[in-house]
Amino acid sequence: MRLSGISVAITRPPHQAGELQRLVEEEGGRAVLFPTIEILPPEDWTGCDRAIDGLHMVDGLLFTSPNGVTGFLERAALRGTDPASLRGKRIYAVGETTERTLGGYGLGVTAMPERFTAADLAKAIITEDLRGLAFLFPTGNLTSSALAGNVRLLGATVDTLTVYRTCAPAARSVDEFFGLVRAGRVDWITFTSPSTVNNFAQLFAGERAGMIRSLTRIAVIGPTTARAAEEAGFPPEAVASRSSAKDLVGAICAIVAPRRAH
Question: In degrees rounded to 5, what are phi and psi of residue 205?
Fold first, then answer.
């Protein structure tokens, strides 16, 4: 039980926190659920619906998050489009969780980078001839446009679709979480995406941010999230080597266990 007596805050939305919570608890730790983002549908589905209706003209899709996968495919299903109809198209994905979510719909990926950023995905497909191909990029309202821009540089067209929105949590839950931190009941805070970091930083500033830095330690998935945490004033002590909940917990254990041995 490498995390026995250790409290780990999970900032993922509730519907995505299950695996990380289970892994923390299997290591003897206590999971503290504090979603810094709430995932909501877009305010307007018009553009997405138009793209779904024209799927026969699309050559491939880009996915950088599980929310992009579920948001798009669930909407497609509501409009009578079976996910199986996408099996003949190119599907590029970032992250093992995204790949696993696609697998739940019976879809495999054409390519996924060894690392787990949109920039790495662009590098992974740079040798392919994408000239004249049309792609859809179902994503959230806060996602960077860098990937779409890189794919366009390779000669393809990319239609970016907003299929979900990220919003901040209620003020009451923010105060309750800070109370736990102040009472010394949160040892680690985990971040799995830049949006969880940025929302967290907006919720806690000034003296509160300083107290969080002094009383907790930060663990993140991937260089992009690590960079966002650094820029937000919450430098990570543990960075997962791969984009998975298992590796994130492993990164924390790798720091906690040796110190306990001494």
Answer: -135, 175
For 72-125, the pLDDT digits (tens) are 999 999 999 999 999 999 999 988 888 999 999 999 999 887 665 667 777 777
CB 181 within 8 A of CB 215: yes
Transcribe 12-57 into DSSP letters: S-GGG-HHHHHHHHHTT-EEEE--S-EEE--S--HHHHHHHHTGGG
User: Which of 136, 134, 151, 138 is closest to 101 using CA atoms?
Assistant: 138
> Do 200 and 34 contact (CB within 8 A), yes or no?
no
Q: What is the pLDDT of residue 261?
A: 54
Q: Mean of the pLDDT values across residues 180-199?
A: 93
pLDDT at 81: 95
Beta strands in 60-123 (DSSP E): 60-63, 90-93
**Closest to 166 in 3D by CA, of 70, 37, 59, 62:** 37
| Residue 53 token pair | 């209706």
Token look-up 């503290």 returns: 32
Torsion of CA 174, 176, 178, 181, to 10 degrees: -140
pTM of the predicted model as reported, rounded to 2 decimal places:
0.65
Output the six-digit token pair for 162. Answer: 């907003």
Work out the angle at residue 143's Cα, subtended by the Cα atoms of residues 138 and 146, and round it to the nearest 5 degrees. 95
DSSP structural state of residue 224 = H
Find tokens 């940025």 and name the residue: 198
CA 173 – CA 10 distance, rounded (Å): 13
Angstrom distances, CA of residue 172 to CA of 34, 191, 199: 11, 21, 15
